[in-house]
């Protein structure tokens, strides 16, 4: 009898992980990997979250990182708890007081510029690209987090940030600054105050005040419009692929389908640049515009408004870089239809 | 008729409650190398009564440019008659035809990624057409899920 009770007690921690693994598999493994090794998202090893409080993990799951890939998750409190228990795998959660840390923001900025900026960026914007991406041979194993991200600042308490600066994060490039550089308590407090100075009220996502699709009426006949679009794309430094009819490979109504032609184009330099920022780019590749002729003989060019597509990446770096490209695509088509 | 109305109500409820999450990219991680995933994807698309149209390689010289993998392709697929009818009725839909799934190798795994077709909902006007878009969305999710399940 005693043996049975002991056995049950020994297995209790395992039972408490039940459910968490499924929640992880359903929601997290696509970005953080089967073994939590990191991929599009950061590694989530037991050791890498050892300094993170439960409250920090809860808020991170609930609010995500706006503009920094990690989305917000619509999980119940009970599911979040199960998930965190699974991630901790028996390791105890650290507890931090909510006491804010006061310090000299100016002095903190100086320390930041000397020690932290190299990895976390001038404006605390973090490293380029996604968490730990196996596709891109980066100079770093893991992209350094954005400390100015409102999701991070909302989730992390001052005391937790302090502990991480002092102790570092195991199995990552975040070293212990107390050990390696003899940071004093005051230096760390100043640094925390500087990081905290970036916190702003939480903003909801801005809506895009533009149509989902742009339609440009052409002044030319169908084949002239296709030719002019191809010429215009080349002039805008795009490599233009052979034309395809819209449903090529799907059906065989050759005559009707010939009035729906897709012009595909790509600027390889830009493609490489965007792939570095987000490997999921393929969902909007290749850039394309479709030339249509309706039954009345009216010719138009239809272009997807890529701003909506980019918003799905939750990646501010991509949005910033893409603005000029989207503008030039629109100009390119305006030239073709004129 | 009653079933269709109930289905539509359920669809509208789901889309309004989870509006922001509906628009996120659909991603699944498959525990298999690229070539196996590609085959499974082709088979699963057919099993859902879609036809694979063509593939677009985006892996040109990726290895030479320091990518760890050069397996990065996009598979286009669709239903000819249905999409042709929709493109006639709603020219705004043509930039999104055929549907596509991006396949990229990552170490021993493969990621399959797609835009959820439900983002096209604002472009169609009738309940019947909304049902079609909703079905595409469910099919897309089911295809990704089934490919993943084959290597679980």
Architecture blueprint of SSEs:
The complex is a heterodimer of chains A (338) and B (152).
Chain A: H1 2-16, H2 20-27, H3 29-32, H4 54-63, H5 77-88, H6 105-120, H7 150-155, H8 158-167, H9 177-181, H10 185-196, E1 213-217, H11 222-235, E2 239-240, E3 244-245, H12 254-257, E4 260-266, H13 268-277, E5 287-293, E6 299-304, H14 306-311, H15 316-337
Antiparallel strand pairs in A: 1-6, 2-4, 3-4, 4-5, 5-6
Helix pairs in contact in A: 2-5, 4-5, 6-10, 8-10, 11-15
Chain B: H1 2-17, H2 19-22, E1 26-30, H3 34-47, E2 51-57, E3 72-78, H4 80-89, E4 99-106, E5 109-114, H5 127-149
Antiparallel strand pairs in B: 1-5, 2-3, 3-4, 4-5
Helix pairs in contact in B: 3-5
Describe the structure.
The complex is a heterodimer of chains A (338) and B (152). By secondary structure, chain A is an alpha+beta fold. Chain A contains 15 helices and six strands. Chain A has helices at 2-16, 20-27, 29-32, 54-63, 77-88, 105-120, 150-155, 158-167, 177-181, 185-196, 222-235, 254-257, 268-277, 306-311, 316-337; strands at residues 213-217, 239-240, 244-245, 260-266, 287-293, 299-304. In chain A, strands 1, 2, 3, 4, 5 and 6 form a six-stranded antiparallel β-sheet that branches. In chain A, helix 2 packs across helix 5 (77-88), helix 8 crosses helix 10 (185-196) and helix 11 (222-235) crosses helix 15 (316-337). Chain B has a single domain (24-149), classed as TT1751-like domain (TATA-Binding Protein), CATH 3.30.310. In chain B, 44% of the residues lie in helices and 22% in strands. In chain B, strands 1-5-4-3-2 form a five-stranded antiparallel β-sheet, covered by helices on one side. The longest helix of chain B is centred in the C-terminal third of the chain and has 23 residues, at 127-149. The radius of gyration of chain B is 17 Å and the shape is globular. At the A-B interface, helix 3, helix 13, strand 5, strand 6 and helix 14 of A face strand 1, strand 2, strand 3, helix 4 and strand 4 of B.
